[in-house]
Every structure is written in C-alpha cells, then in structure tokens.
Amino acid sequence: MKKWVYLMMLALSITAASAQNRGVYVVKDGLGVIAPSQEKRYALVVGNNAYQYVGKLRNAVNDATDIAKVLRGLGFEVDTLNDAGLVSMNRAIKRLGRKAQGQHSVALFYYSG
C-alpha cells in the first residue's frame, strides 16, 4: 500500500507541476507540488466488487475506501461510488470533469474492480 501511495503522490506532483507554469511550489518528502491554497483537488474513487457474470471480488471496495481516505488527507474533495453501474459511473466522471474545469485544479480518477 505504501508504494502505491508514493507512486500516486509522484503522479499527482508531476500533474500539478505541469499544469502550473508560474506558481508557488511546496516540497514535501522530496515531492514538489503546488501550494494547496492555490490548487483545487478533486477525485472520483470507484470500487466494484459485484459483477453480473463474474464471481464477487473480495477487496475492490476496501481498496477504494483506503485510497479515498488517503486522498481526503491530501486535501482532495472525494466522491466515491461502490458497486456502480455504467450509467452512474459515466455521470460521476462528467461531474468530476465539470468540477475540475479552470486553472489550478487536479482531477484524479481511481478504479478498483
């Protein structure tokens, strides 16, 4: 889990840095990110255990719950869906895109299932 969180933070750092040409950067644990006061962070986290034609998964929802908790701790506004169908996921992805429009924002989509 710790390696995954580190890799995710590295990806967030790269995304934030490339999206911002002139900003204040904060370095934490060797990662450079835009100061949280200047950046809006949004995430959609989906965990699907239940499938119609496949046996039930054991950990997808648990993994999504753990990632959502980490992201909230990093200042993300997190929307979560568990055992979501295609229509509800499409709506949630569009909502995420609308929230993240504009400057100084990061959008992250995480799917486990």
Short structural summary:
With 113 residues, this protein is of the alpha/beta class.
Verbal overview:
With 113 residues, the protein is of the alpha/beta class. The chain is built from 3 helices and 5 strands. The chain has helices at residues 2-19, 60-73, 86-99; strands spanning 25-28, 31-34, 40-47, 77-82, 105-112. The strands form 2 sheets. Strands 4-3-5 form a 3-stranded parallel β-sheet, with helices on both faces. It has a two-stranded antiparallel ribbon with strand order 1-2. A hairpin with a 2-residue loop joins strand 1 and strand 2. The protein starts with a helix and ends with a strand.
List keywords for this structure.
113 residues, alpha/beta, two-stranded antiparallel sheet, 41% helix
Lateral arrangement of strands in the main beta sheet: 4-3-5
How far the N terminus sits from the C terminus, by CA atoms, comes to 16 Å
Helix content: 40-55%
What is the global morphology?
Answer: flat
Structural class: alpha/beta
Number of strands: 5
The helix/strand series, from N terminus to C terminus, equals HEEEHEHE
For the largest beta-sheet, the strand count, sense and barrel status come to: 3 strands, parallel
Mean pLDDT: 77
Count of DSSP helices?
Answer: 3
- Please compute the radius of gyration using only Cα atoms: 15 Å
Strand percent estimate: 25-35%
Walk me through the topology.
Elements: H1 2-19, E1 25-28, E2 31-34, E3 40-47, H2 60-73, E4 77-82, H3 86-99, E5 105-112
Parallel strand pairs: 3-4, 3-5
Antiparallel strand pairs: 1-2
